[in-house]
Amino acid sequence: MSVGLRKSTTFGKRVMTAALAALIGVSALPAFAGTGKVSAEGIVPVFSGNPKDLRPFVNDVLDHMNLDDLAYYAAQKTAAESRVTLYGTGYLLPPGAVGGSDNVHGVSTDMPVTNQLGQTWDQDLIKQVGSVLGDEKRSEVGLDNANPLMFSAIADVRINPLSGRYEEGFAEDPYLTGVLADSMARGIVGDDPFYLKVQLGTKHFMTYNSEWNRNTGNYYTGVRGLNEYQLPGFLKAISNGSVQGVMSSYATLNGVPGAVSPELIKAELKSPFSLFNVSDFNGDGLAVTQYGNGYDKSYVPDNDHLAALLILAGSHMNNSSATGAPGSPTADNYKNAVLHKIHGVNILNLRELVRPQVELWVRVGYFNKKDDKGQPTGYPYANLTVEGQKTDATTASHQDVALEAAREGLVLLKNEGGVLPLSKSSNVAVLGTLADARLKDIYGSATPKLDGAGLSPLAAIRQLIGSDKVAYDAGAKTIALQSDKTGKYVSAASGNGSQLTADADKVGPNETFQVLDWGNRAYSFKSLANGKWIAGSGSADASGDKAKVSNTAIDRLSESWGGGFELNMFATNFPPYFSYETTADGRKRIRTGALPAWSFSSPVPFQKSMLTQGYYFSVNDGNALVASTTPAQLKQSADPKASSFSEVVLQEPGAKASELAKSNDYAIVVVGAGPKIVAGEGVDRSDLSLAADQAKLVHNTAAQFPGKTIVVINSDYPLAVQDIQDDKNVASIMYSSYGGQYGNKALAEALFGDYAPAGRLTGTWLKDMSSLPKLSASEQAEVDPGYTVDMSIADPIQTGLTYLYSDVKPTYAFGYGLTYANFEYGNLNVPKSIPSNKPFDVKFTVTNTGKTTSDEVAQLYVHARNSAYGEYAPKQKLVAFKRIKNVKPGQTVNVTLTVQPSDFAVWDVNKQKNAVESGAYDLLVGRSSDNVLLKSVMDVKGDTIGTLGKNTEANVWEHTFASNGVIGTEVSKARTAIYKGQYYAVTSTGEGDFVGIPKVDLNGVKQIALRVATPNAAGSVEVHAGSPSGTLLGTAAFGQTSPVSYGIGGGQTANELGYTEVTADLAAKPKGVQNLFLVFREGNVRVDSIKLK
């Protein structure tokens, strides 16, 4: 980025700064004198406390820094020590941020996971949750700590429900995400307009769509997908000043690494203060070791060039090793970038990179004058530090917020006949292995030891209604395994750690195993000999301990305060899980170490691990079970029966339900999908389906408890459960993601009527995977056949995903959720006409016509009737909502929703800005996106989408409003490095792919020039008017374009595919303003720009 482009770079009028003078050997005095306390090392400057003095104060601090100082703080991850500046009087400055900490939804108090918080649809409560996090984070450190930096209030929107980190975002909707992320962020940092309770960064900026090749791959989105969908959730909190920086995403966006993405400029230009941006953990160095374009092996050749791009993008290094090895940059690399003027960077650019770090120190009161007690005067949050009134999970108000958040995030999906809530006098049978489990999400904080905290669903129900009224059965399938080698049954001794053998003549307790089907092909096995889970980590050394298949010491999934078990991504004491495979002839094989697992250094990408990884259970010559046979060895084995078993089903899932039905009034079946085993950081799901054995448990139990079966779904992700919804024997379904320390306490309260659930889904629950984008045949051939979905497309418009663009009827729509009460909506009052630049009110009434006091979530959507984007415009769009609290039976509430017309906007691809289109809009008020109860039409006086005219060369990606099949590709590193736009080309992946440009003035146009590239022997692009199949205006045909090499950035040779200009004479004589479509006849054809002549 050139000097002066970043918003914070406003010092261009200064003739010369002291730092620049020092660099070039000219004497200069500081522009702003520090008058702080003199220590043995240096002077601690003092800030006046007046926000108007922020910039001159920070300039003064920067003026005291020479190149070494600036480079030290630019490499913030390793700036772990205080430092005396090396210029002027010498200022004593604190350590750098050193990366901050992930406190996604908890510090001391264990709050619900982010998507569960989203399901509250309660921005006031979310702000309270944020306030708890901020208070507790501030209480972790003292006033002498200048870097209480945390990452939370996540603004990711993930369009694909298979994404491994789905639960970290609030919603699939950008508006809801933006409102809730901003509310949480404001709670975290506090309401003071200048001072910060803590320093907050959000993540992952931007298009963190999946875990698929996240360290090496490319995510694609179009210009509308970027500006209408991916960015708004971030920009709301940034523009309101509630977040102070962003963590960039792994992988590349349209071929450009996230850590150096020019899109970071959009965040910086929106912020009222300088933004402290960092790359994701070790993500910056990937530009040196990864991200080749087919011509260069990596994006940049060395750490110096990486540092230059980080400076230009306004992004700090976040590399944990900093050894200087390729991909492990140090402070010296920042110095070299400046000294060698790589990409034209100079010390002024480096100053601006360090500026936000200094601003953050000021805004947490670090430099304020101290009073007699050593507290910074004027800093409003001094009492929250360790020197003041420390707060943590034992603070009563924090516990109240955690419980309310757990309650409000519960979503009632089905309640036929009003079966819920149950009476506490009922006798209930609780079934499911997961009923006695707590499945924590990836970044859940440690659960505190408090009354009612850390309970499994079973424990919570027993605590609420009494253990004497609760019967429990795991309901798992029970099997025996007969070795095809020995003909004997696999047996487990009762001692912990005893090796399994295949030498039993008959089936008894020692030969009986419960099977836990986690879904996505993962299974765990529990021996009934001692109730322990089976383990076998696998080893090529068949005689080693790691190869032994044996009992473990783990006997449960729930967290008890005697054992302290937590199943989350970082836990090591969760049940071992295996791939349980069926051969062509119906035999069974068990493999360890093959299923995708989270790891910073997986030996192979997770989507390929099943092809080559792991060890099969085999019976050795001593009849003992070992895990030492690789897939390659099995194919060549002279004794394949050693790894083959016959499954003998002793008991189907839910087999004991008929017996339980004799003495119990209702069945509560707990099913779901947990983190790490099914998905998580580094691993996407392969399938939406609920585990087959868990689905059988539901149906078999419901058949014995017809109309009296309640299903509890505990999952961090949407599941395909249409069959359970359609099962007439299933009366009710309650959904909860991870609800934090009180999640299951809240669940029990809702099941038995102490609380009325009213949460709403924040994602679409599809019936199946048929509408998800598919991998191409060539891509499918290279990965595990279990993975069929293309996870690289982060554009909901092109994929037709999310409620905004989908035509598919789901099981549960975005915003769906029931209550124990019935509500009627009426008396809609909407202006007939509004200007697009002023907010307006939508008024209506909500009446509780039921018998239960309940919350209700009213939602307002809009639809533009005559958008210039036609079928490619959002089908409906959330623009306002309100959670109405505690509506009593018979009570009518007057509801007012204040609406910002700017939230109607689409991205005008021809004017390159947001536009609220003029015309008629449907206003749709209801309980969900597919349950509209009130409608009205309103006229909006706004903008019109711009027109593309003749003789203007336009980047096609920037002007595309509709697309199919294309991806984005960086045009050239040289163009990206000057940060002036036109970064991406559209690239076809197959025949028939297309892009559309709206409102092209074709009057008098005789020829169209395209700037194209292809490594193919030939390529061609058809030009159609009106639609991809509309009138053919002409065809541009061309041959292979050659690679080009050129010098860039000082010492770097860039190697890329070259472009050429081709023209297409228009056979027809088009007239008027029409949409223009470029249709590709081959894959791997790129188009950079178009010009009408």
Automatic annotation (TrEMBL):
InterPro entries, A to Z: Actin-crosslinking, CBM6, Cellulose-bd_IV, Cellulose_deg_GH3, Fn3-like, Galactose-bd-like_sf, GH, Glyco_hydro_3_C
Domain CBM6: 952-1093
Protein origin, superkingdom: Bacteria
Pfam families, A to Z: CBM_6 (PF03422), Fn3-like (PF14310), Glyco_hydro_3 (PF00933), Glyco_hydro_3_C (PF01915)
Keywords, ordered alphabetically: Hydrolase, Signal
N-terminal signal peptide: 1-33
Gene Ontology biological process: carbohydrate metabolic process
GO function terms (MF aspect): carbohydrate binding; hydrolase activity, hydrolyzing O-glycosyl compounds
Keyword Transcription tagged: no
Family membership noted in the UniProt record: Belongs to the glycosyl hydrolase 3 family.
Protein name: Carbohydrate-binding protein
Organism annotation: Cohnella candidum
